[in-house]
Amino acid sequence: MSGSNRNGAIFAFLAYTMWGLFPLYFKLLKAVSPVEILSHRVIWSLAVMVMILLVKRHWAWLWALRTQPRVVGRYAASTSLLAANWLTYIWAVNHDHVIDASLGYFINPLVVVMLALLVLGERLRPVQWVSVALAAAGVAWLTWQAGTLPWIALALAFSFGFYGLLRKTSPLGALEGLTLETLLLFPLALAYLGWLASQHQNAFLAASPGTQLLLALAGPLTALPLLLFGAGARRIPLSLLGLLQYVSPTLQLLLGVWLYNEPFAGPKVVGYVLIWAGLAVYSAEGWMRLRRRTPLPA
């Protein structure tokens, strides 16, 4: 592996590790409502984005959006999906559903495959159909055992899947895109925090300095893994990036089982094994196809 690839793998691994450890952070804010945490995440993330843009003197793209209403509209849609994903995840972690949240990100790659089929009209290869069928069987099994759909996992997987679909066809890069999304959410977040303050329910104003610092850290904790991911994605093959993405939900699952003692045994394991089998088939098939396409070095 070349030096560039090695650095790229490290950057991507660190990004997925940070995302996988997010439950540790949100659990520290369990006394704050998920909507208020989300509002602070938006506000402080925008502050970080603005500082980065100031350092880079990179503002021309934002001014150019004045004449691109369709681009702004597309990002308004992706912003709604991002907010729904963030809010669902925060709620799940702080209501002891870390394992269910991890399931959402395990099945997300297969949801993306289905969206490619249904929305983009792509054709699935036979092995991909097998992987999707195994994952669907796992979800069906979990639904039958629990008596209800695993809505947290499905909400996270589909909101992030559609979000990725919109971002895939959007003209802005990761830094510019997140800046615009947080900018669009900023008025709503600020208005909500202002309303809480008027009702004397703003947890930030009444919290200890430690809790206030934790809420302010939502900005850099959102921006840093994104920047690491962007740096890594540019340096390593998509196949390696696809394998590294399982670091995040694996860490979340381990935290849910071993640290937070959430139930994970018996019939529930069967559903997860089916889903993991689908992911294994999907990843192995993609890896082998890439190997066949890549010429051996002379």
TrEMBL record:
Protein name: Protein RarD
PANTHER family: ACYL-MALONYL CONDENSING ENZYME-RELATED (PTHR22911), SOLUTE CARRIER FAMILY 35 MEMBER G2-RELATED (PTHR22911:SF137)
CC per GO annotation: plasma membrane
Annotated membrane topology: Multi-pass membrane protein
Lineage, top ranks: Bacteria, Pseudomonadati, Pseudomonadota, Betaproteobacteria, Burkholderiales
Family matches, as InterPro entries: EamA_dom, EmrE-like, RarD
Protein keywords: Cell membrane, Membrane, Transmembrane, Transmembrane helix, Transport
Name of one Pfam family that matches: EamA
Species this chain originates from: Ralstonia wenshanensis
Domain of life: Bacteria
Residues in EamA domain copies: 8-143
Primary localization class, coarse: membrane
Compartmental location: Cell membrane
